[in-house]
Design goal:
The complex is a heterodimer of chains A (313) and B (691). Chain A is mainly alpha-helical and 313 residues long. Chain A has 2 domains: 72 residues, no CATH class; 225 residues, MetI-like (MetI-like fold, Orthogonal Bundle). Chain A is 77% helix and 0% strand. In chain A, helix 11 packs across helix 12. In chain A, 37% of the residues are buried. With 691 residues, chain B is an alpha/beta fold. Helices cover 33% and strands 21% of the residues of chain B. Chain B contains 24 helices and 24 strands. The longest helix of chain B is centred in the N-terminal third of the chain and has 17 residues. The chains are: A mainly alpha (313), B alpha/beta (691). Chains A and B meet through helix 1, helix 9 and helix 10 of A and helix 2 and helix 4 of B. Chain A: It comes from Chelativorans sp. (strain BNC1).
């Protein structure tokens, strides 16, 4: 087990290196001069040239990559072109805010999804299965911003019980204003839900069809013991793997939700950086999302192994 | 609603029977898979239910547990120890599962929950049904594990199923079934899929359980040998009808139904006196059950009256009944089985020569700086040759390396050392590195026909491919040849347009054989080609393989990999017995099956449950096959050998001994000592073999 974790961490470093290389290349090879964009239309060629010099853009691309990677490994993420401030503290706050959002959404949706997946698998083909399955299909089909706007419309504008905007005042902790979190968390949770439910349902259906569940039934165990003890443990394994992947996905996928609710998370930072061509921030946020994705996968594998003795060697 | 109906059969009056099944009919949708079945099992009695796949025997077994799984019991009644199973509400039925009736399943690997420790899987039923506490239930689980003869029960309870061997897993399932001392124990193919040596020890365990308790056994099996060894009475099912019933010895020795007779003739025997014969035709469509005898369409002695009215059970002798109008003519009119042709080694040119072949599978690498896991030594210096027109059987338990050897010969894998020569040419390479002619000349028939055919191709495309690729046939010539080959494997022209999913298991394997023979091979590696098939189909396929070999212009040689010694006896000229990646004995079939043999061969033969009583040794192998990552020193069989000579066995590699020309075995005992040891054991046995 420890051996596997060490190996996976090594692999993780390798993946992150590949990601950093690709991101750097894509951003730097794209047409359009960063310096010109930063300075705006009115800039003279001399000014552009000076800025290029200052940003080191005249160096060969590989040299720039190595020095950027070196800086990042030392914890120096560079300076934002747009704000002229070091990126690191900005990144830390934003990442923290996003993690709060993603984590709350996950905590809310996983138990609900496992419950719904199990119920629909047990009552397969019944009206309860059909209602839940069609509802999840509908929510899956709706884009995040539609779900977000619908929630704002209902709770923010008609009922006026929750704020429609989730701006956090500078320096305040997101949990200090729990009300502003409700709608974004709900939107993300509803977005994750269908996927989890379907995978749990499929896993549980397979578990219920298995010989070992038949053994449990023929041992005379009551249905709830068969479902919770025998089927669930094996049936949620595929869902666990997906949930881990979703954690990483969620951070990247928060872009839309954070934008809709003006929530100061890493996704929103990435979007604003992209429109401003703030290259250092784009690179840093992409790296953070990639790292989150890889770590999420690793965590999912570890949980899978903990649940599945066949993988424990 | 369940109708009450009088059984049409003639059940033996057993007022105190543990299990009473009366007029049971079960359907799945429109298919009436079980019809009007009546049977009784007395306390302490073992009743065998035999029949091929689709006969409804497992359906009956599960319905006795009250588990219909989507089916409906349209008529009849099942009573176990006074409980009317089919009318009970779920809650009450649950109370019976375990304490009154329990089941041992086929395929223990899947029957046990992979993520729960085996001790808990035994204990949970005890806790639920008796209200025992955790510690008490676990103590009982340990006791049960001890009773099914697993070593170190305190350690075993903490294991997960994947940490046990197949035989050990089945012992756990048996312990689980016995936990609450049920009145009726159902065994559904309990040894199918296990090695023959493991099967023998599991059957011994079940016999012992039967002797020390008064439990009634319902034994479901397609293996007549197993039923002959285990059961007092036997019922024969065909397509949902109970067609014959009686005392085991009587039914199996003097069958009074053409189907029973056919089943028995299809069994390959290690005694090898009689030729096995398949049953032509296939199961009828059970959505529209014909009015008369259900077996009529496949019966060679059917008369007009057979199709006119339902055939009643007729008493042959007291306690022996047959659902056949012509049971009196059964023995006289059906062709008596013919003596099997004696096969002897051939002295044609050497077609395949394998010399000191080694193959090991390197262990998974752990971390860059740690040593990798030990390698699995699948083949440790194997040498043999096969002559033109010859069939060489390779036998051994799972993990002996026999399939690996087949894959090397076929070029599906590459050896780590040694050479493989085909017709004198070195072909020690993967198939794609061989010449086109060598690729064509060596063909492979796989164990599982269900996954060996491309589901998106028609039979015509499958069989036509080697013809186009290797022989360059096209157009009408191609078509003519495909039809010809399909006819040779007894599939007509109408099969051309079928897709694999429209074929039965036997038909699929015939297509695989047709594909292999389309290439006009000179050597065919057959890896357990019939182990996934019913015995009646197996007999027919083996016959066809032999006919194809006899008629082939190239004197095709077979390398026949199997674990079934009965099959070996019937089709092989020579036999190689493998253990842990080595050949321990090699020789003409008659020399392998006659005493004295290598102790491992002897144990393999002793383990085969035979249909007809034999004076065979009762030798049993204890313990599990050692890990192929670290084979034992000296003679690799010494850890399990019942004829251990002494320390020399673990210290020195055994010398090669020979009792006849072309025969070789590796043992520290000399031939005469082995002969004396084997005869002594047979004479010392006071009790006769089971009647």
């Amino acid at each position: 087990m420890t051996e596997m974790i060490i190996r996976r961490v090594g692999l993780l470093a390798l993946i992150l290196f590949a990601v950093s290389f690709m991101t750097f290349m894509i951003v730097n090879v794209l047409p359009g001069d960063v310096a010109a964009v930063v300075l705006g239309d009115g800039a003279s060629p001399e000014q552009v040239h000076l800025l290029r010099e200052k940003l080191g853009l005249n160096e060969p691309v590989l040299t720039r990559f190595v020095s950027w990677l070196g800086d990042m490994l030392r914890g120096d993420f560079g300076v934002s072109l747009l704000y002229g401030q070091p990126i690191k503290p900005m990144l830390a706050t934003r990442l923290y805010n996003s993690l709060v959002l993603a984590f709350l959404a996950l905590v809310l949706s996983v138990p609900v999804a496992i419950l719904l997946g199990t119920v629909t698998a047990m009552k397969r083909g019944s009206w309860i299965d059909r209602i839940i399955s069609s509802l999840t299909a509908v929510t899956f089909a709706l884009p995040e911003f539609v779900k977000g706007l619908a929630l704002i419309l209902v709770f923010g504008i008609w009922l006026e019980v929750l704020p429609g905007s989730s701006l956090i005042e500078a320096g305040r902790h997101p949990l200090s204003q729990p009300l502003i979190l409700v709608l974004p968390v709900l939107t993300v949770a509803i977005g994750m839900q269908p996927y989890f439910v379907q995978i749990t349902r499929a896993g549980m259906i397979e578990a219920f069809r298995s010989d070992y569940v038949r053994t449990a039934v023929l041992k005379g165990l009551p249905p709830h013991v068969v479902a919770l003890k025998h089927a669930l443990r094996n049936g949620v394994l595929p869902a666990v793997a997906v949930i881990g992947m979703t954690l990483g996905n969620a951070l990247g996928g928060l872009v839309v939700v954070e934008t809709v609710f003006s929530y100061p998370g890493i996704g929103q930072l990435m979007v604003s950086a992209i429109s401003a061509r703030d290259v250092p921030i784009i690179q840093s946020t992409v790296m953070i999302v990639a790292a989150a994705y890889a770590v999420g996968n690793l965590l999912a594998d570890i949980v899978s192994i903990a649940l599945n003795p066949r993988l424990r060697y | 609603m369940i109708q009450q109906r009088l059984p049409t059969g003639t059940p033996i009056p057993l007022p105190d029977a543990t299990l009473c099944v009366d007029g049971l009919s079960i359907s799945y949708g429109a298919a009436k898979v079980v019809r009007d079945v009546t049977l009784r099992i007395a306390p302490g009695e073992a009743y065998g239910l035999i029949g091929e796949s689709g006969s409804g025997k497992s359906t009956i077994a599960f319905s006795v547990m009250g588990y219909l799984n989507g089916g409906t019991a349209s008529a009849g009644r099942i009573t176990i120890a006074g409980h009317d199973i089919l009318t009970l509400p779920d809650r009450k039925l649950r109370r019976l599962r375990g304490p009154v009736v329990s089941m041992v399943f086929q395929d223990p690997m899947n029957a046990l929950n992979p993520s729960i420790r085996v001790g808990e899987q035994i204990a949970e039923g005890i806790r639920y049904h008796t209200g025992a506490g955790k510690a008490e239930a676990e103590a009982r689980a340990i006791e049960l594990i001890d009773q099914v003869k697993l070593p170190e029960p305190e350690d075993i309870v903490r294991r997960y199923p994947h940490q046990l061997s197949g035989g050990q897993q089945q012992r756990i399932v048996i312990a689980m079934a016995l936990a609450l001392e049920p009145a009726l124990l159902i065994l559904d193919e309990p040894t199918t899929g296990l090695d023959v040596t493991t099967e023998a020890t599991i059957l011994d365990l079940i016999t012992e359980i039967k002797q020390r308790s008064n439990v009634a056994l319902l034994f479901i099996s397609h293996n007549l040998g197993v039923v002959a060894r285990m059961c007092d009475r036997v019922g024969v099912l065909y397509a949902g009808d109970l067609i014959e019933e009686g005392p085991t010895a009587e039914v199996l020795q003097r069958p009074s139904h053409p189907y029973t007779r056919g089943l028995i003739s299809a069994v390959p025997s290690i005694a090898g006196e009689l030729e096995m014969v398949g049953i032509p035709g296939s199961l009828p469509d059970l959505t529209e059950v014909p009015k008369g005898c259900i077996f009529r369409a496949r019966c060679s002695i059917a008369i007009a009256a057979c199709g006119e009215a339902p055939v009643p059970m007729e008493t042959v002798r007291p306690g022996h009944a047959s659902r056949c109008l012509r049971w009196r003519d059964c023995l006289a009119e059906l062709n008596p089985p013919q003596a099997a042709a004696v096969r002897a080694p051939l002295d044609g040119e050497k077609r395949l020569e394998i010399d000191s072949v080694i193959r090991s599978f390197p262990g998974a690498r752990r971390l860059p700086f740690l040593k990798p896991r030990p390698a699995v030594q699948a083949l440790r210096g194997v040498s043999l040759d096969i002559r033109a027109g010859e069939t060489l059987a390779v036998v051994g338990e799972s993990g002996s390396g026999k399939s690996t050897l087949g894959r090397l010969v076929a070029g599906l894998d590459r050896p780590a050392g040694g050479t493989i020569r085909f017709e004198g040419r070195d072909v020690t390479a993967l198939s794609r590195e061989r010449t086109v002619d060598d690729q064509r000349a060596v063909q492979f028939i796989f164990q599982n026909p269900h996954s060996a055919l491309n589901p998106h191709h028609t039979v015509e495309e499958i069989v036509g491919r080697p013809l186009r690729l290797y022989l360059g046939l096209q157009g009408t010539e191609l078509r003519r040849r495909i039809v010809e080959i399909l006819r040779a494997v007894r599939l007509g022209e109408r099969y051309m347009t079928r897709a694999p999913h429209e074929l039965s298991g036997g038909e699929k394997q015939r297509v695989c054989i047709a594909r292999a023979f389309a290439a006009e091979p000179r050597l065919v590696v057959c890896d357990e080609p019939t182990s996934a098939l019913d015995i009646s189909v197996q007999a027919a396929i083996l016959q066809e393989l032999q006919t194809l070999q006899r008629e082939s212009a190239h004197r095709t040689a077979y390398m026949f990999i199997t674990h079934d010694l009965g099959v070996v006896r019937q089709i092989a000229d020579r036999v190689a017995v493998m253990y842990l990646g080595e050949i321990v004995e090699l020789g003409a079939t008659r020399d392998i099956f006659s005493r004295p043999q290598h102790p491992y061969t002897e144990a393999l033969l002793a383990a085969v449950p035979e249909l007809r009583p034999t004076r065979a040794s009762r030798m049993r192998l204890q313990g599990v096959v050692p890990r192929p990552t670290n084979p034992p020193s000296g003679c690799s069989f010494h850890t399990r050998c019942p004829r251990l000579k002494g320390d020399i066995c673990s210290q020195k590699a055994p010398p090669t001994r020979s009792k006849a020309s072309g025969h070789a075995m590796r043992c520290h005992h000399d031939i005469n000592t082995l002969k004396a040891l084997q005869s002594a054991e047979l004479e010392n046995r006071t009790e006769p073999a089971r009647p």
